Amino acid sequence: MTELPFPLAGPPEPQAAEAAHRLFASGGADFLKGVVAMDGLPPADRVEICFAGRSNVGKSSLINALTGRKGLARASNTPGRTQEINFFTLGDSHYLVDLPGYGFANAPVAVVERWQALLKTYLAGRASLRRAFVLIDARHGIKPVDDEIMTLLDRSAVTFQAVLTKADKIKAKDRDALLAQVRGRLAKHPAAFPEIVLTSAEKNEGINTLRALIATLP
């Protein structure tokens, strides 16, 4: 049987699971700073992973589930409210980076333009950035605004991996159609990592897999 392009990531191998346990089990994740300009970035002295996604896709919930810290990343009830690049330390070896939600932003046009320019500059110029995780709401699949950020990552030569959020909110009968749509759109992006992660922060689905991916990035 021919393997589907962009298969779903499976449970981690024992060695990767152990690496993830060492990295995440200590509970050593802390908020470092919110950055509004490139000169505010912390030193690029550790492995860096960023999370990008439409407003209200569930980035904060996913980061909290990954780190086991419920209030670490704060979600806003107003789409587009978060306009900083938020850095979190994970032990003394990693940064987790929460990028501003893109899409419909409840902010003045000039503010949105500055924030989008910061995002583009960060993605293009951060040498320590190992991978971007692009979060996609499993109920909606890839939207044009997601394609835009993926194209930016292509142009910036930043490897990105699609992470489907809120998997518990989609019916089993609709999952195949969702995956077909996502696979078709990812195939157009040369920077896309050839594996999809299916997650639910609420049900803890896919969290161990994502932790292992982060822990084993070179």
UniProtKB/TrEMBL annotation:
Protein name: Probable GTP-binding protein EngB
A Pfam cross-reference name: MMR_HSR1
Keyword set includes Cell division: yes
InterPro entries (alphabetical): G_ENGB_dom (IPR030393), GTP-bd (IPR006073), GTP-bd_ribosome_bio_YsxC (IPR019987), P-loop_NTPase (IPR027417)
Record GO biological process: division septum assembly
Protein family per UniProt: Belongs to the TRAFAC class TrmE-Era-EngA-EngB-Septin-like GTPase superfamily. EngB GTPase family.
GO molecular function, a single term: metal ion binding
SUPFAM superfamilies the record matches: P-loop containing nucleoside triphosphate hydrolases
Reported function: Necessary for normal cell division and for the maintenance of normal septation.
Cofactors required: Mg(2+)
UniProtKB keywords: Cell cycle, Cell division, GTP-binding, Magnesium, Metal-binding, Nucleotide-binding, Septation
GO cellular component, one term: cytosol
Segments forming domain EngB-type G: 45-218
Source organism of this protein record: Roseivivax sediminis
NCBIfam families: GTPase_YsxC
